[in-house]
UniProtKB/TrEMBL annotation, chain A:
SUPFAM superfamilies attached to this UniProt entry: P-loop containing nucleoside triphosphate hydrolases
Key words, A-Z: Antibiotic resistance, ATP-binding, Cell membrane, Membrane, Nucleotide-binding, Translocase, Transport
Lineage: Bacteria, Bacillati, Actinomycetota, Actinomycetes, Pseudonocardiales
Nucleotide-binding is among the record's keywords: yes
Bilayer topology annotation: Peripheral membrane protein
Protein name: Oleandomycin transport system ATP-binding protein
Organism, scientific name: Lentzea waywayandensis
All residue ranges annotated as the ABC transporter domain in the record: 5-235
Gene3D superfamilies linked to this entry: P-loop containing nucleotide triphosphate hydrolases
Predominant place of localization: membrane
Family: Belongs to the ABC transporter superfamily. Drug exporter-1 (DrugE1) (TC 3.A.1.105) family.
UniProt KW Cell membrane keyword: yes
Gene Ontology biological process terms in this record: daunorubicin transport; doxorubicin transport; response to antibiotic
GO CC annotations on file: plasma membrane
GO MF assignments: ATP binding; ATP hydrolysis activity
TrEMBL record, chain B:
Lineage, highest ranks first: Bacteria, Bacillati, Actinomycetota, Actinomycetes, Pseudonocardiales
Membrane-spanning parts: 31-54, 60-84, 105-131, 143-168, 180-202, 235-253
ABC transmembrane type-2 domain boundaries: 29-256
Localization annotation: Cell membrane; Membrane
Topology of the protein relative to the lipid bilayer: Multi-pass membrane protein
Protein name as it appears in the record: Transport permease protein
Species: Lentzea waywayandensis
Family from the record: Belongs to the ABC-2 integral membrane protein family.
Length: 264, 257
């Protein structure tokens, strides 16, 4: 399958801090890859490198074959970015924010207005279109931010912690929007602190910690490895071990449990 | 850069300037520093010191207004850095920079929008001055040239503010820093008093300071008198300010964002 994003050996140091310490990342076209990790794991740094906002100290990355360092302009024309903090202009209304971005993307005056109206409708913001963005609720603002990143019809979308700080209702709204986009063939790189969010949206998950990739795989695989439940059983008498094996094997349906034998 | 690229760059600059103008319209209190502050300075200095310094307030007003124009345009131009610092810290610039537009477009746009502030500043100042008794001794053409020169001065020196705005962390720090820089620059000049009674070191600076030279050029344009000398001097200062601070501002901007 063709790759929308390919990053190899990305390194970014801030003094002693290794924000990225050799990260490889591949995102197939039309798929959602979730980057999961705690604060400071390097998720946002990775997104900023892939969005041409930050030069890595080493390594390279391409978006649809265009190098983020050598041909940033081509990359910028393909991507949409929704930052960790909603980066719309709070003083401007929903319409004005979107019209501005459309004009910057070389839409005509009329074309920009039409595009803004279409996006506001799609994100159910038409009623609030004329109000300053600072009067929006958290969820509305995040939706406007998403709309803003879609003005240029990007084929690759970066969502940097799109639901951090949102209540469950607003979070579900954002999830619904992302699913719709993916259904339309957009490739999504999603960063999140929540396994649940990655599980809900992502086709595969990459786990970051301290600027490194520490695990990778499909959500169910990872959950089995990382979040799986553990049952420890110690028979009082060593003779019962075989019986315990059989019972546990039947119970979990996963064959022979792992054992450590220690003399008591 | 091809003409088409330049044309696109200008259009993006104008689109972003439109954003700045919308913001001014929505927050008219942003204009306070270019409307109220100049009036207070004008009224205070004219009526407090005018009599003592120039014999009567009318004569002082004729001398003061051109200088106050320079002082206020400088102050108005210094908010550019504060504004831009705010934009960067709020992440608005990240969105612009992730788009296929010229790197400098957000900076150019913000500076173009500032022209509106400069015009408001000059108009308010001249209206109040006229009410107080100030009269242009020359003609409308000279007045227009004087206003245009003042605006150009603001556009050249605002890059210093953008530079500081990109270097410092918070908008408050930028504000404080600019205040510290501007106060001596405007008061250490011939805006309020002639330089003849100043100590030698201060006079030496005040005679060649950009604020003094432009004030003299404006006095020539509005009150009649020598223009060529101070005008040449102030144009050299403006060119120098752009030549030094525009690249520095761009460098700091690239490093910051």
């Amino acid at each position: 399958m063709a790759l929308a994003i390919r990053a190899e050996g990305l390194v970014k140091h801030y003094g002693e801090t290794k924000a990225l310490d050799g990260v490889d990342l591949e995102v197939p076209e039309g798929k959602v890859v979730g980057v999961l990790g705690p604060n400071g794991a390097g998720k946002t740094t990775a997104v900023r490198v892939l969005a041409t906002l930050l030069r890595p100290d080493a390594g390279h990355a391409t978006v649809h074959g265009h190098d983020v360092l050598k041909d940033p302009r081509a990359v910028r024309s393909l991507i949409g970015l929704t930052g960790q903090y909603a980066s719309v202009d709070e003083d401007l209304s929903g319409t004005e924010n979107l019209v501005l971005l459309a004009r910057l993307l070389d839409f005509s005056r009329a074309g920009a207005r039409a595009k803004a109206a279409e996006l506001l409708e799609q994100f159910e913001l038409t009623d609030a279109a004329g109000r300053a963005a600072k009067t929006y609720s958290g969820g509305m603002r995040r939706r406007l931010d998403l709309a803003a990143s879609l003005v240029g019809n990007p084929s690759v979308l970066y969502l940097d912690e799109p639901t951090t700080g949102l209540d469950p209702h607003a979070r579900n709204e954002v999830w619904a929007v992302v699913r719709k986009l993916v259904a339309n063939g957009v490739t999504v790189l999603l960063t999140t602190q929540y396994l649940e969010e990655a599980d809900q949206l992502a086709d595969s998950i990459t786990v970051f910690d301290h600027g490194r990739v520490v695990a990778e795989g499909r959500p169910d695989e990872l959950k089995r490895r990382v979040g799986g439940q553990t049952l420890q059983v110690r028979p009082t008498s060593l003779r019962d071990l075989d019986v315990v094996y059989r019972i546990l094997g039947d119970l979990t349906g996963s064959g022979r449990p792992a054992t450590t034998t220690r003399a008591c | 850069m091809s003409t088409i690229a330049l044309d696109r760059g200008m259009r993006h600059g104008f689109s972003l300037a439109w954003r700045g103008i919308l913001k001014i319209r929505k927050n008219p209190e942003q204009l306070m520093d270019v409307t109220l502050a100049p009036i207070i300075f004008l009224v205070m200095f004219t009526y407090l010191f005018g009599g003592a310094l120039a014999g009567n307030t009318d004569a002082y007003l004729q001398m003061l207004v051109p200088g106050i124009m320079v002082m206020n345009i400088l102050q108005a131009s210094m908010t550019a850095g504060v504004q831009m610092n705010t934009d960067v810290s709020k992440g608005v610039f990240d969105r612009f920079r992730s788009m296929p537009i010229a790197r400098s477009a957000p900076l150019v746009g913000a500076v173009l929008a500032d022209i509106v502030r400069y015009v408001v500043c000059i108009v308010v100042l001249l209206v109040v001055a006229t009410i107080m008794g100030f009269r242009v001794q020359t003609g409308p053409a000279e007045l227009l040239i004087a206003a245009a020169l003042t605006i150009l001065f603001g556009l050249c020196f605002c890059w210093a503010s953008v530079f500081v705005g990109m270097l410092l962390k918070t908008p408050q720090a930028v504000q404080g820093m600019m205040f510290v820089l501007i106060m001596p620059l405007t008061f250490g000049s011939n805006v309020f008093v002639g330089t003849s009674t100043m100590p030698g070191w201060l006079k030496a600076w005040a005679d060649i300071s950009p604020v003094s030279l432009l004030s003299d050029a404006l006095r020539g344009l509005l009150n009649g008198g020598a223009i060529a000398g101070p005008l040449t001097g102030s144009l050299i200062w403006m060119a120098g300010a752009v030549a030094v601070f525009f690249p520095l501002a761009m460098w700091a901007y690239r490093k910051r964002v």
